[in-house]
Amino acid sequence: DVIELKKFINHNQSILTHLKIDTGMGRLGVEFEEAEYIMKVLANIPAIRVEGIYSHFSTAEESDTQFRDLQLQRFQEVVKMANELLPETEYFHIANSAGILNCQNSCFNMVRPGISLYGVSSLGKIHNKLSPVMRMKAPVVMVKKIKSGESVGYNRLFTAEKDEKIALLQAGYADGIPLE
C-alpha cells in the first residue's frame, strides 16, 4: 500500500523482505523471466530492503534430477543478478529437506528444512543421520470400547474390524495432524 510505504519513507525506516522467484514450482513468486525487472524496481525504492531471495524446488526428492538442476541453474542466475542489482541482499535459499540431503550445492547460505525436522527423509528411504528436533505430545483424555463395525472420527475414516479399546488424544487437525 502506497500510503503505508510513505509512512516508512517519512520515518527513514525500511521494510525488510525476502523476494520469492518462481524458478519452476509454478505457485507463488515472481516469474523467473521477470526477476531482473523486479530487482531493478526494488533497487530504486529505498523503503524496501530485500534481505533475502528464495525459490522452492518442485522435484528435489526425485531420482531424475533434470528439472531440479534447471531450477538450480535459474536460481544461480537470480543470485548473480541480485549481487549486481541488490548488493545488500544477505540471504539466498532454495534448498528444502530433499535439497539439503540430495543436492549440497543448493544450500547457499540458508536452508528451509521441512519434514526432515521430524527426523523423516523426504527421499523415500531411511536416512540414519536424521533425528527429530521436536516431538508431538498430547494427553489421553478418554479411553473407550468400540464394537466391530463402528466408525470413529471425521468422515468415518476409521472403522473397527473387531471389538477394541481406543484412546482419544487431545490433538487434531488444527494441531497439524492430517485427517488421513
Please characterize this protein's 3D structure.
The mean pLDDT is 86. The protein is elongated and about 70 Å long. Helix 2 runs parallel beside helix 3 (66-85). The chain is of the alpha/beta class and 180 residues long. The longest helix has 20 residues, at 66-85. A four-stranded parallel sheet has the order 2-1-3-4, with helices on one face. It has a two-stranded antiparallel sheet with strand order 5-8. It starts with a helix and ends in an 11-residue tail after the last strand. The protein contains four helices and eight strands, in the order H-E-E-H-E-H-E-H-E-E-E-E.
How is the topology of this model organized?
Blueprint: H1 2-10, E1 15-22, E2 30-31, H2 35-43, E3 48-54, H3 66-85, E4 91-93, H4 97-102, E5 140-146, E6 151-152, E7 158-159, E8 164-169
Parallel strand pairs: 1-2, 1-3, 3-4
Antiparallel strand pairs: 5-8, 6-7
Question: What characteristics describe this protein?
Answer:
single chain, about 180 residues, alpha/beta, 4-stranded parallel sheet, two-stranded antiparallel sheet, 4 helices
The count of strands amounts to 8
Give the helix/strand class.
Answer: alpha/beta
Radius of gyration from CA coordinates:
23 Å
Mean pLDDT, to the nearest integer, reads 86
Q: How is this structure best summarized?
A:
Helix content is about 25%, strand content about 20%. It has helices at about 1-10, 35-45, 65-85, 95-100; strands spanning about 15-20, 30, 50-55, 90-95, 140-145, 150, 160, 165-170.
